[in-house]
User: Which sequence fits this backbone?
């Protein structure tokens, strides 16, 4: 049966729907789900006999097939759920108990460090004397004696396993949620000297790849590359972004060129074009030439994936382009499209939560847009000369990819660089040459025979690329920030694109008629979202260390009261994303007072001065700030508040003592260090 006759588009979409249902809505035990999956398999097998051609005959088969793969998606989620795996550590320990425990693990992946910690993903091997598996986040406190832990090394430590902390202020980035979609639910925090080095794990592909990258970096460092250039080389060719500085990362992001620094679909696509070019002579051999070319290309792609560390983005891209190579080998656009969906289906079978990965979504949407949209744009102009053809092709590919990615980038990142096409149009045509020279540099440097002129040429290429990006990023007026884009707007925008592509061959008048409904839906959602945000009013007592901060939101304007002035960085951290999601603006920041009223509710603040009005009877909310040295039981008996709040400006020992007092008197107590910011609607 030919590949294009198999409706993998519908199969993959149905599986994706099942994964969404299984993750968010369907709460069913795996033992109860497996019989349902077996029954659906029997139904699908039975209806197969009634349909000679899929989607041509037998509508019941079509329905049963879609239903089967929806159930298949739900089953995938449940099978991969650690709670359903008997050897997973989560089934061998009570996390609520805070007692230290002995664990043995090996380093699986090195993450980008934070200001205070070096971070790693570790794979558990033993919990006390019991063999277990599962992933944890390891945070090692930064100090002068903390070397980088090597991938594959095994350590033992006696420590506490803790929940990965959730954000404590409204609409901040939820790192715990991000990790949970990689099956990482807990963390351990330690100092380097607490680790006991046991052994190095037996050679594995990730460890071999790590050692190759380590040797490459040692070789490159002997050729006078700057730290910034080395970080770019590691990101551009080896897929390692841990050492990129924040300034470099932000510059590429603001220039709309961050995808250049992530070894993903763009890089693998360029490498694929290069491999197609150098293996094209094999096409002369009619019998085995094309098949041999395909095998060599796929082997080369996976060899590069190993060297690049087998990171999720590289694995996604190599899997995707391996299947696309097969589709191209079959010489059919339908085969190419089916190959794209087959690769997505295969990846989701191995890890269903990849569906929630931003990188996964961006990669597939970009390639899908290039396949479907680029030919439509390319038809508007037909250059005569070769150089203009290549420039026009690069431009249309860039535009098509950006059209496909525009809604999802607005949804996730809330900003849009208008000059993105400048950096992309200048850099991408030469990116293949940069990658090619870079690979030559790495090979020659590893052999210690890198000539100075090649080193200088590659250094100049990296410096020029950085200059173009920096020039583009510094034009702040061409970067639109804080764009609100909801899920409803995201789906309705993609609905417009789907209708536009589906009706591209129709007459203009008919096309406009078909597009009217999705466009009106998008406009309706815009109006509704705007109207719904205007009506929101709320008071927020933020969790801030060594400070007390209160925000009042009304008419899409946030007025902030703070005990100490807030820097721009702190303002962005506390309510940058909040302002975007609420479509609000920051009105002003004012010095904190000791008394407020919100919707007829009195709020009293007792700070380190310990002064309060004893004449005030029964305030609605009493906020404790700055660790005041008070006898809380006496204060409660005098003021009789209805709610007590202790924010992050207080000592933890004080908060613990106050919590006990409030429990005794049965007064609601809210501590922001555990429950997060206090929000009053």
Assistant:
């Amino acid at each position: 049966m030919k590949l294009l006759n198999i409706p993998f588009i519908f199969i993959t979409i149905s599986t994706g729907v099942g994964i969404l249902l299984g993750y968010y809505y369907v709460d069913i035990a795996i033992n109860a789900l497996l019989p349902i999956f077996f029954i659906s398999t029997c139904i699908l097998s039975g209806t197969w006999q009634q349909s000679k051609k899929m989607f041509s005959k037998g509508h019941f088969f079509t329905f049963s097939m879609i239903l089967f793969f929806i159930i298949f998606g739900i089953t995938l989620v449940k099978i991969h759920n650690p709670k359903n795996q008997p050897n997973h550590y989560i089934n061998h320990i009570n996390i609520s108990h805070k007692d230290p425990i002995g664990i043995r693990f090996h380093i699986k992946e090195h993450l980008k460090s934070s200001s205070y910690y070096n971070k790693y993903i570790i794979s558990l091997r033993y919990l006390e004397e019991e063999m277990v598996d599962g992933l944890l986040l390891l945070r090692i406190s930064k100090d002068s004696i903390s070397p980088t832990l090597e991938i594959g090394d095994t350590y033992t430590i006696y420590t506490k396993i803790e929940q990965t902390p959730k954000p404590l202020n409204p609409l901040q980035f939820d790192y715990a949620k991000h990790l949970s979609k990689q099956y990482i639910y807990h963390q351990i925090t330690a100092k380097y000297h607490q680790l006991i080095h046991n052994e190095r794990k037996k050679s594995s592909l990730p460890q071999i790849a790590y050692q190759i990258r380590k040797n490459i970096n040692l070789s490159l460092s002997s050729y006078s590359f700057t730290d910034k250039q080395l970080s770019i080389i590691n990101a551009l060719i080896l897929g390692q972004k841990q050492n990129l500085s924040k300034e470099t990362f932000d510059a590429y992001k603001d220039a709309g060129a961050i995808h250049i620094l992530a070894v993903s679909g763009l890089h693998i696509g360029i490498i694929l074009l290069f491999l197609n070019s150098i293996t094209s002579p094999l096409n002369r051999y009619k019998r085995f030439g094309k098949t041999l070319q395909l095998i060599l290309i796929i082997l080369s792609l996976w060899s590069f994936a190993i060297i690049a560390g087998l990171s999720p983005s590289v694995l996604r891209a190599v899997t995707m382009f391996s299947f696309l190579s097969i589709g191209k080998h079959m010489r059919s656009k339908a085969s190419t499209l089916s190959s794209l969906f087959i690769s997505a289906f295969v990846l989701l079978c191995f890890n269903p939560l990849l569906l929630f990965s931003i990188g996964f979504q961006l990669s597939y949407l970009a390639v899908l847009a290039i396949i479907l949209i680029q030919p439509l744009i390319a038809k508007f102009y037909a250059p005569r000369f070769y150089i203009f053809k290549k420039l026009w092709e690069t431009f249309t590919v860039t535009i098509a990819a950006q059209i496909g990615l525009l809604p999802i980038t607005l949804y996730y990142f809330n900003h849009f660089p208008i000059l993105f096409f400048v950096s992309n149009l200048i850099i991408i045509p030469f990116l293949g040459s940069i990658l090619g020279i870079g690979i030559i540099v790495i090979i020659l440097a590893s052999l210690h025979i890198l000539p100075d002129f090649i080193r200088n040429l590659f250094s100049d290429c990296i410096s020029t690329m950085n200059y173009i990006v920096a020039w583009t990023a510094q034009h702040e007026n061409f970067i639109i920030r804080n764009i609100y884009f909801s899920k409803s707007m995201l789906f309705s925008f993609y609905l417009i694109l789907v209708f536009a592509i589906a009706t591209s061959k129709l007459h203009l008048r008919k096309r406009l008629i078909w597009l009217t409904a999705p466009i009106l839906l998008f406009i309706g959602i815009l109006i509704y979202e705007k109207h719904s945000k205007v009506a929101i009013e709320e008071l927020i007592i933020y969790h801030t260390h060594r400070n007390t901060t209160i925000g009042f939101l009304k008419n899409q304007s946030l007025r902030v009261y703070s005990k100490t002035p807030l820097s721009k960085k702190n303002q962005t951290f506390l309510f940058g994303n909040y302002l975007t999601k609420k479509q609000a603006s920051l009105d002003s920041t004012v010095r904190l007072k000791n008394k407020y009223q919100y919707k007829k509710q009195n709020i009293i603040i007792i700070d380190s001065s310990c002064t309060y009005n004893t004449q005030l009877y029964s305030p609605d909310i009493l906020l404790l700030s700055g660790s005041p040295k008070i006898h809380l039981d006496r204060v409660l008996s005098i003021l009789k508040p209805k709610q007590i709040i202790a924010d992050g400006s207080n000592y933890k020992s004080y908060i613990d003592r106050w919590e006990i007092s409030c429990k005794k008197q049965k007064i609601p107590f809210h501590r922001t260090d555990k429950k997060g910011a206090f929000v009053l609607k």
Notes: The chain has a mean pLDDT of 84. The chain has five domains: 3-80, 89-202, 211-355+416-480, 487-534, 538-680. Residues 538-680 form a domain with the Metallo-beta-lactamase; Chain A fold (CATH 3.60.15.10). The radius of gyration is 29 Å.
